[in-house]
Design brief:
Elements: H1 6-15, H2 20-38, H3 54-80, H4 84-111, H5 115-125
Helix pairs in contact: 3-4, 3-5, 4-5
Length: about 130
C-alpha cells in the first residue's frame, strides 16, 4: 500500500471524500507519529506488544506446532521406557528442540521484530 502525502489529503478534501476536520486530524496524527519515531535514539524502539493481528495467528500456529512436537516426543519416549536408549533419546530430543526454538526465535525476533512470538518462544525454550 502506498503512503498518502499532503497533496493526496488535499485532493480528498476537495473531492468531498473526507472533511477538513478529518484531514487536519490525520495530518496531526501523522506528524506526531513521525516526530516520535525521529526522536528515538540509537537502538531504542517504542514498545508495541502486537503490531498486527497476524502475530496472534503465528502464536497459535507455533503453539500447535510445539504441542504436536511434545506429543510425538512424549509418545516415543514413553514407548522406549527407562532403558538406556530412553535417556539418550531424551537428551537428543531436548537438543533438537532447543536448536529449533533458537532458530525460529532468531527469525521472529531479529528479522520480523515480532514481540508476541518471541515471548512464546522464550517460554517454550525455558
Amino acid at each position: 500500500m502506498n503512503s498518502l502525502n499532503r497533496d493526496d489529503i488535499r485532493a480528498a478534501v476537495a473531492s468531498g471524500v473526507i472533511t477538513e476536520k478529518q484531514a487536519a486530524g490525520s495530518v496531526m496524527l501523522s506528524d506526531a507519529r513521525q516526530g516520535a519515531r525521529q526522536h528515538i535514539r540509537g537502538l531504542d524502539e517504542p514498545f508495541e506488544l502486537f503490531r498486527g493481528f497476524n502475530e496472534i495467528f503465528i502464536v497459535v500456529g507455533l503453539s500447535i506446532l510445539f504441542a504436536g512436537w511434545w506429543g510425538i516426543t512424549g509418545l516415543s519416549l514413553f514407548t522406549l521406557g527407562a532403558s538406556n536408549n530412553g535417556y539418550v533419546a531424551t537428551i537428543a530430543y531436548g537438543v533438537i528442540t532447543a536448536v529449533a526454538v533458537c532458530v525460529i526465535a532468531s527469525y521472529f525476533t531479529l528479522r520480523r521484530r515480532m514481540v508476541a512470538p518471541s515471548i512464546l518462544l522464550s517460554i517454550v525454550f525455558g
